[in-house]
Structure formats: C-alpha cells, structure tokens
Amino acid sequence: MTGKKLPIISIGKRKTAVARAVIRPGMGNVRINRIPLEVYQPELARQKIMEPLMLSGNLWKQLDIDVNVKGGGFVGQAEAVRMSIARGLTRWFKSSRLKRLLLSYDRSMLVGDERRKEMKKFGGPGARRRRQKSYR
C-alpha cells in the first residue's frame, strides 16, 4: 500500500440543509458547490464557514475541501457546511486538541442541533394556532 491517504467524507446537517464535505490532500482549496470560498456570498455565510478553518490554524492549507450542500436557507446551509468541515478536519488529523478547541469555541460545530419545525395539525393554519371562538 502506498503512502497516499484516502479522502474523507463528512456530513453536516442543520434544519433542512445537508452538507457533504470531501477532504483530500491538496493545496488549500475550499469550494462550496464548486464556488471558491473566497468569492462565496453572502459575507455572513462565508465568515461562518471560515470559523473551523481559522481555529485549525494552517493545518487546512495542506488539504482540498469540496463541499456539496442542498436544502434550507443560506444560514442553515452555512452552518451545515461549517459542521461538515469541522467534523472532517477532526477525523483527518485525529487530534484531540483540535476537537477540544472546536467544542470549547462552539459545540454546534461538531454536535448537531436536533430541533426541527413542528408539523402542522388539522383545525388551524399552523402547528399550534387555532381559529378564535366568539361566544357573543
């Protein structure tokens, strides 16, 4: 077997957004849906995605990260991408120090948030709201 390392696939989910990151040895290229991170819009989403990369220092510059994300809004997608990148980096480097650093910064980078939208029920326009009754 050669010294070449196999790519790692990691998944991040937030609300209805699902991100799949493929991490392989490379030159520090990060692409989200084939768009380079440097030109990814909106700015808020780009900054959120950059958090695990900045916390890992220069370690990520020896890797290529390709992320495919679907579903949800732009903030949900950004948090899903951020989670998939953070999980992939901890699996790639097998570093407990990096894992502790990410968990202490923001636990939602590695641990998912299971909250979902409550289902709408019959008898009203939403999950809990009902038509008002008037007895006069």
CATH first level: Alpha Beta
Net shape: elongated
Q: Report the mean per-residue pLDDT as an integer.
A: 90
Q: Could you name the CATH topology?
A: Ribosomal Protein S5, domain 2
Helical element count? 3
Using only CA atoms, what is the Rg? 19 Å
* Overall number of structural domains: 1
- Architecture per CATH nomenclature, i.e. the level-2 architecture: 2-Layer Sandwich
Sheet with the most strands: spatial strand order: 1-2-5-3-4
In terms of structural class, how would the helical and strand content be classed?
alpha+beta
- Low-pLDDT runs of 5+ residues are none
Count of DSSP strands: 5
Helix content: 25-40%
For the sheet with most strands, the description reads: 5 strands, mixed
Descriptive labels:
136 residues, Ribosomal Protein S5, domain 2, five-stranded mixed sheet, 3 helices, 5 strands, 32% helix, elongated
Give a written overview of the molecule:
This protein is an alpha+beta fold and 136 residues long. It has a single domain, classed as Ribosomal Protein S5, domain 2, CATH 3.30.230.10. Helices cover 32% and strands 21% of the residues. It is built from 3 helices and 5 strands; from the N terminus they run E-E-E-E-H-E-H-H. Strands 1-2-5-3-4 form a 5-stranded mixed β-sheet. Helix 1 packs parallel to helix 2 and helix 2 packs antiparallel against helix 3. The longest helix is centred in the middle third of the chain and has 20 residues. It starts with 7 loop residues before the first strand and ends in a 31-residue tail after the last helix. The mean pLDDT is 90.
